[in-house]
Design goal:
The structure is a homodimer. The first copy, chain A, is α/β, with parallel strands linked by helices and about 220 residues long. Chain A has seven helices and five strands; from the N terminus they run βαβαβαβααβαα.
Chain lengths: ~220, ~220
Amino acid sequence: MKKAVILLSGGLDSATCLAIAKSKGFELYCMSFDYGQRHNAELEAAARLAKSMGAVEHRIVNIDLAAFGGSALTDKRIAVPTGGVKDDAIPVTYVPARNTILLSYALAWAEVLGASDIFIGVNSVDYSGYPDCRPEFISSFQVMARLATRAGVEGAPMHIHTPLIFLTKAQIIERGVALGVDYGMTVSCYQADDQGRACGVCDSCRLRKSGFEAAGVPDPTHYR
Amino acid sequence: MKKAVILLSGGLDSATCLAIAKSKGFELYCMSFDYGQRHNAELEAAARLAKSMGAVEHRIVNIDLAAFGGSALTDKRIAVPTGGVKDDAIPVTYVPARNTILLSYALAWAEVLGASDIFIGVNSVDYSGYPDCRPEFISSFQVMARLATRAGVEGAPMHIHTPLIFLTKAQIIERGVALGVDYGMTVSCYQADDQGRACGVCDSCRLRKSGFEAAGVPDPTHYR
C-alpha cells in the first residue's frame, strides 16, 4: 500500500479529503497542527476522524504561528468577522503563509515516511479570498517540493493532491456523504466553543450551512 | 528603510549573509530556529551576531523537526559522519525539507512585517549534497512565495536573496572579512560542545577550516 500524508484540520473539507484518500487505497498518515487556535475542538475532531477512518498514525505538530499575529484566527486582538464574505479582498481570517508552512511540514514527514503523496483539502471556489488556496499556489508548491527533497533528486516525485479544489461546498458534501463521512464529527466554526459547538454566523459557518442546504443534506452541525 | 528577514543559524554563512543584508541598507529582522539541535551553542551565537549587527529584532522559533527524525542532526540514533564529504550522495546530516520549513516561517513573518525581502545563506558550491541548497530550489520557492501571500496578490513581490549561493567558502570568508564580520563569534560545527567549541572533524568543520586556509585568513574558530 502506498503511504499518503493527509493534512487534517478536523473541518468538513479535510474530513472529505481524508475519505477520498482512503477511497483511493492509500495508507493514511494524518497530520494536524496546534497553532494557537482559539479553541481545541477542531483538533479533537481531527483525532476522532483519523481514528474512525483507520489512519495508521495521527500526528499533532505544535507550531507557533500565533507569535507572528496578523490574523483573526491567531491574534486575539483581531475580531472574527460575522458579516459575510466580501468578494474582492483577502479576509482578516487569513493566516500569513499558513498553507505554505503546513505543506512544508507534510513534505518533511512524507520524506521521512518515504511517501510521495500529500493530500490537502484546499478549495478555490467558495472561498477564493485566501491566496494560498489557489490552484496556481498548489502547482508552484509541487514544483518546489520536487526540488526541495531527496525524493525529487533520487526517487518518485512528490504529488500534492487537492481533490476538492474545484468543487463547491455542496459538491464536497455530496462527495463525502457518498463516501460515508459523518459530518457530525467535524468542526468548521472559527469560534467553536469548548464542546465544538458552532456559532452559526462566522464566514466558515455560513459557507458550511449553505453547502448543506444546496446539497439537500440535513445539516448535522452542533450549533450552540 | 526597507525591512528584511534574515535566516540566522549562528554559523559562518548566515553571519556573512546578515552582514551583506546590512551593507545593502536593510532594516534587519533576524530569525533563528530551535529544532532539537544537538547543542544550543549556535543559537547563542546567533543572538550575539544579531545584537552586534544592530538587528531590530531577533526571534527564535521553536519547531519540532526532531519529531520526524531522519537526519543525523536531529536524530540522536544517527551518528554525525566525520569521514569527509562524499561527492554524489545526499549526506545523512540532511534534515528533511528543512530549508522549505525555515523559509516558510520567514515568509510568514515577512508578510506580517510588510517586508518583501528574505535572506538565506545557502550555498551550492562547496556542499551541493543538500537538495534544498540548490539555486533551482530557491527559484521555485520564490515563485511559490509570490503566489502564497497577500503581498503576491496585492503588493510588492517577495524576493529570496541568496548572496552566497555561487561563492566558495573562501570567497564567503573574504566577503565577510571585508564587511567586518567577526567569525570568532560564529559556530559551524555539527557537534559543538556547550561552550560552542568545534570538533574539527565533522563535514562542516572540514569545509570551514579549508575555507580559512584557502582565503589566507587566520582561523578564529574555537576548537576543543
